Amino acid sequence: MTAEKRQGLRLIILGTLLVGAIALGARWWLHGRYIQSTDNAYVRADITAITPRISGEIVEVAVRNNQQVRKGDLLARIDPRDYEARVENARAAVAVREAALKANVEQKSYQAAMIREAEANAVAAGADRQRLEKDWQRADRLVKEGVANQARLDTASAAFKSGSAQVERAQAGVSAARQQSATLDADRGRQQAELEAARAMLKLAEIDYSATELRAPVDGVVGDLAARVGERVNAGLRLLSLVPLQAVFVEANFKETQLTGMRVGQEAEIQIDAYPDQPLKARIDSISPASGAEFALLPPDNATGNFNKIVQRVPVKLVFDNPGELAGLLRPGMSVDVSVDTRTGAAVSTASAQ
Asked: What pTM does this model have?
């Protein structure tokens, strides 16, 4: 190869490299500088841990691992006999309280009749005393006139005093009847409160009884099944998990320096390691209020000891626009690559501001 040809080849290579560098630079300037990417990202889901709210022996496990279930499907059943007996006992207690309250109402009605009778007796005693008083006054006048003897006056006086005592007795009877009525009113309030307490205990017993059947709170797939027939479990012990595969999302941990232009609503491309030839579109749903380190079991305390500055990562939640053929195939924990186009967020923010 002659010197001229080598020189020409050299120029061609340099020109090609220059053009390539310019193209790459232009691509970065027009597109690449707006893209924020990370491979520290994973598929996530709001996994529901199924735990019993009561203790007891498991008598039935109605599902198996990896089984699809619908909301409301039976998952497991705890022996209900103890809780059924508690419901019956609570119902009996309510019946007793209702009977006591009904008896109080009937006693109140009877006492009202007793008050009316006592008041009538008081009126009759008052009228009789007025008659005896007139007889006593008449006998006193006749004795003074010499027409009647002292014995008649004494008899009339004694009868008048007896009539006065009968009036006081009748009035005391009215007061006692009214006091008894007030006592029944107070007792009715106590019995009403006891009835409400018994009804509340019945409701709690019914809630516990209904809790013997564990049902799916959401649609999902059964995982980590630990429930076994015959096993005695305590309240709060995790028996299985429900994974809503139809509602998976991506959690990407971006460096804090990448969040400058990142906003909710920006578009992103998701590359799933398990399906490298099927990229998915997504958008930012939310950004964590703090870095991952702040939510750690032992958050770092940079106020003590030596300090080494470390770039923190902030979790960003992304939701799929349409999983398409991968719907139901994505599993929480899968690794993904995320690329966020911050230009879309800028456009959205500008439009919102206008």
From this structure: 0.69
